[in-house]
Each structure stands twice: as C-alpha cells, then as structure tokens.
Amino acid sequence: MGDFGFYFQLGWEHIMSIDALDHLLFVWVLSAVYLLRDWRQVLVLVTAFTIGHSVTLGLSVFNVLDVPSAWVEFLIPCTIVFTAASNLFRKDFTPRLLRINYALALVFGLIHGLGFANTLRFLLAKGQSMGWSLFGFNVGLEAGQIVVVGVVLLLSWLFVERLRVPRREWVLFVSAGVFGLALKMALERLP
Predict the structure, then answer these.
(1) Hey, where are the domains in the chain?
(2) To the nearest whole percent, how much of the chain has pLDDT over 70?
(3) Where do the TM regions start and end (predicted)?
(4) What is the CA radius of gyration of the chain?
(5) DSSP character string of 28-62
(6) Which helix (H) or strand (E) holds 135?
(7) Which CB contacts under 8 angstroms, 24+ apart, belong to 160-167?
C-alpha cells in the first residue's frame, strides 16, 4: 500500500503543481464551457482525459511507445491551443455540441500521458508493481483534476449564475487567456 500512496501523491502533484501549468490550463479550458449543473458530464470528461493519459503513460513506461520528449513538450501546449480555439469559436453550448469535448479529452489525454512517462519510468524501482504504481498515479491525477474542475465550476457558477456574466463571455474570457498562455508555451517549446 506504501507504493500506492507514494504514486497517488505523485499523480496529485502532477496536476496540482505550478510546474504542471500546462495540465492545469488544459483541464481549465476543457471544463470552462460547462456550468455547475453539468458536474456529472465534467466528471466523465476528466475521466476520459485520465484514460487517455493512462494509456500512453502505461505504453511509454512499458517501452511500447517512445516519442521524442521535445515533440511531446511541444504538442502538449498545442492541445491546449486547439481546445481554447474551439471554445472561442463555439457559439452554442448544447449537450450535443459539447460531446466533442469527450473526444478531445481522450485524444489529447494520450498526448499529455507521454509528458510524464520518462519521469515515472525513472522513479519506478525494481521489484515494484508497475500496475499498482500506475494505478496509484492515475487515481491521484484524477483526484487532482476533480479539484481543479470543482474550482472552475464554482467560478463559472459565481460569474455566470450569480454575477450574470453571459456564458459566452465567460467562456471567451477564460479561453482567450488560456489560448495566449498556451500559444506562448508552444512557441517556446518549438522543436
């Protein structure tokens, strides 16, 4: 159980650390189009991201998939730029149109999972259960994402429901800010 706790903490810090700004921004912009009443859909959304993240993290740790880290570090902010841009051009927030976010979360989770693979591979000690360690990491990651999404949903409730900021303007404000930060990251990481 000690391994699980260690890797849970590692997964938690992977999303909650300021060093994980790219992951925070992705989760933020992905969930910015939702309101507090949509919390169930958002939980499914972050779970889709975790599944994608887990698949490539596992494949990388088991040496099945190897992508140059320079490209991974560049592609991660590109996923954020794309997601923010799709929010900027979204005029409607119907459940049918928001379903695209599940695909974005899953596919872009695959790219984000590659970002931590080398570190995790290095940390795994001989004799440790790789499956149990990956499980602990992913549960910690999921828990951290749920906290981030909770903050985003509470802020959307505050601005949209209480302060009566139009939903579209809230989404534009958040998405434009994240777009600018992610574009800067992408340009700085260009291989």
Answers:
(1) 3-189
(2) 93
(3) 20-36, 43-65, 71-89, 101-123, 135-158, 170-187
(4) 17
(5) HHHHTT--GGGHHHHHHHHHHHHHHHHHHHHHHHT
(6) helix 130-156
(7) 160/35, 161/35, 161/36, 167/35, 167/93
The sign one gets for the Cα dihedral 83, 89, 92, 96 is negative
Q: Which amino acid is at 188?
A: E
- What are the structure tokens assigned to 175, written together? 């998405």
Specify the DSSP class assigned to residue 189: T
Asked if pLDDT for residue 118 goes beyond 70, the answer is: no
Instruction: List, for residues 4-24, the tens digit of each pLDDT value.
Output: 888 899 889 888 888 889 989
Q: How confident is the model at residue 1 (pLDDT cuts 50, 70, 90)?
A: low
Whole-number pLDDT of residue 104: 87
Q: Are 86 and 99 in contact (CB under 8 A)?
A: no
Is residue 120 within 8 A of residue 61, CB to CB? The reply is yes
C-alpha 27: how far from its chain's center? 4
pLDDT at 121 over 80: no
| Cβ atoms of 3 and 140 closer than 8 Å | no
At 11, list the tokens. 């997964």
Residue 90 phi/psi, 5-degree rounding, is -80, 125
H or E element, residue 165: none
Mean pLDDT, to the nearest integer, of 97-119? 83
Amino acid at 21: L
Residue 183 or residue 101, greater confidence: 183
